[in-house]
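Problem: given the chain below (332 residues), write out its structure.
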Amino acid sequence: MAIFMLLGFILPKLNLYGTELEKTKYTAIAVICAVLGNLLFIRVYFKAKERVNIPAPQKKKKGEKSALGLILSCKPLIITALMGILSAARYMYQAGAVHVARYSFYIGKDLTGLSLSEREAALQSNISLVSTIFAVATAAGMFGTMLIMPLLFKKFNYKQIVIASSLLGFAASMAMWFVGYEHFWACVPLLVISCIPCGAINVCAFAMVGDCLDYMEWKTGKRLTGMGSAIQSFVTKLGNAISTSFIVLMYMIVNLDVASINADVTANPLEMTSAVRTGMFSLVSLIPAISLLVSVIPMLFYDLVGEKKEKITRELEQQRAEKGIEVTAGGN
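Solution.
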């Protein structure tokens, strides 16, 4: 988002307008992110170490469930995955930022009497500013919540945290919807609160997958750590895909022809119809609110908490000791 913000101020000075400016911006972002991402991942090869020593597995007995069968029969894991899928629209607070900046919100200077280049610079500046404020607000809500999660874990279980944060996010998002796109600054604090479940769910979901795998191992003697991690990764990617699909669908619902709007100059939110501005605004308010509310339903049936979880942990330690499974300290 920082790259997006900087390019929004820099590219208009290079006499780039409309579609050409957007192509250059996203191409530059893709190249920069690809290079930085690969550099950051290189260190994993040199630092990652195994922490769990597991004896050679026994041969599979006839009639045993397949890996897929074990996954599908693990009710808590299915519930966790379903919760993640139903709450997928929480990603729209970030994914939808540039779209509401482009078609709903305008907090820049008066465009009256400006030349084409000045108007383009003002519109691009508005997009960058709104997107940046969204990025800061979502980061404050999401990462701020992540920082205090260790404190919350001391008093509440994962189920309580997910349900409470989802309901809080639902209430804040609905409040933002009623405040409306014409009151941008009033929406900002509500956006921060709306993003609290983004941090809470992201942290709790991974921890819950670990508990689900403990449950599977305790119940069946099999632990499919790789499959469990793959499912959580799949749910995350599916969530992002769903949120992006909602954005594309909204363009179709409000009949927004992007090609004709951005062919020569950046779109002006103030010239958009009420249907367009409202539809785009719903991407970061109404739709995530409904998603968070619905995601609470499967969590009502999640039961790996309290005494049951403690019992599984105790008995699982004994089972592992009998099998000669050792968990060593250190590693990454």
